[in-house]
Amino acid sequence: MDSRLLIFSLSIFIWDGGESCSYPEYIQNTTWRDNTKGRVTYGVNTMEGWAFTAFSQLISDWECFLSDNHFIVSRSSTTIKVFGAEVYAYLCQKPSLIGENAIYYYAMTDEEENAGKERVHVTAADVSEVCTVCNPKSSPTDEEFRVLLREGTSEAPPLSGTLVVGCNPCVLQCDLPGSPPIPTTTTPQPIRKSATVTRKKPPIKATETDDEKIKHTANAGVVVGIVIAVLALLSIAIGGTVWYFRFKK
Questions:
Q1: Taking 80 as the threshold, does the pLDDT of residue 237 lie above it?
Q2: 68 vs 165, which has greater pLDDT?
Q3: At 41, is the secondary structure helix, strand, or coil?
C-alpha cells in the first residue's frame, strides 16, 4: 500500500474517532433550563450556554468528548490561556432522565479554585479516558444535583425516592456486593450488625407492706414475751406470799 494512502487512512480514522462522541438522544436538539446556568442548548455533539469563568476568561461552548454507560464528558470548544499555556476545560455529567421533560445530573469533578469553585476539570494534559476527568477526590453530596427542564416545562416531576450520587466506578469497585447502583433513586441503608441483648432480671425487693408486716410481727412477739414474764413474776410473788402467811401461822 502506498505510504501516503496509509497516512491518509490513519488520519481519517483518528478524525472519525474524535467525532464519534454524541450526547444522548433524549437531550439532543433541545433547549433546556438549567437551574444553575439558565438556558442551555444541546445539539448532537455540541452544547451551548453552560457558562463559567476561569482565569478571567468566559467559557460557554462545549463539545461532546467522551462518554460511557455512566458519564458524559464535554470539552470546552476553545482553550483557556494560563500563564502562556493553552488548556482545555472538561465537564463530567452523570445524568438521570426523570420523565420526558426533566433531567437530573451531578457534575462529577472536583471544585476548581480558579473557576469560582465550579466543578470543572482544567488541564493541559491529554485526556483519553472518562475516568481521567470523572474521579473527584471530593465527590458532590447527594443534595448537589442539578436540574435540566425542557424549555416550556413549568416544573419537574416529583421523584419516587431520594436522588443520590451513587457509586462512582472511576473511584470504587462498584461491582462488589453492597455497592450502590448507578443511577439510583433510593438511599442505601447502612448494614447494621445484630447483637443479642441479655436482660438481667431485677432483684426482688420487699414491699413496704411486707416490711410493715415483719415489723409488726416482731413487735407482737416482744409484747407477748413481756406479758408472760410479768405473769410469771406475779405467780411467784403470789405463791411466796401464800407460803409466808401459812408458815407464820
A1: no
A2: 68
A3: strand
Q: What's the one-letter identity of residue 181?
A: P
CA-based nearest residue to 46, from 21, 81, 68, 18: 21
**Band of pLDDT at residue 243, cut at 50, 70 and 90:** very low
φ/ψ of 66, rounded to 5, equals -145, 155
- Grid cell listed for 215: 415489723
Q: Which residues make beta-bridge pairs with 90?
A: 75, 121
| Other C-beta atoms lying within 10 Å of the C-beta of residue 32 | 23
pLDDT tens digits for range 9-58:
323 223 333 458 999 999 999 999 999 999 999 999 999 999 999 999 99
The confidence band for 221, taking pLDDT boundaries of 50, 70 and 90, is low
How far apart, in whole angstroms, are the C-alpha atoms of residue 159 and residue 151?
A: 20
Contact 149, 32 (CB under 8 A): yes
In the numeric block, which cell numbers belong to residue 79? 482553550
Domains of the chain from N-terminus onward? 19-150 (2.40.128)
Cell numbers for 19 = 467525532
Contact 54, 89 (CB under 8 A): yes
C-alpha distance from residue 131 to each of 1, 66, 74, 127, 143 (Å): 37, 10, 13, 9, 23
Most distant CA pair in the chain: distance in Å? 171
Supply 194's cell numbers: 445484630
Is the bond preceding 202 in cis, omega lying within 30 degrees of 0?
no
Alpha-carbon distance of 229 to 27, in angstroms, equals: 111
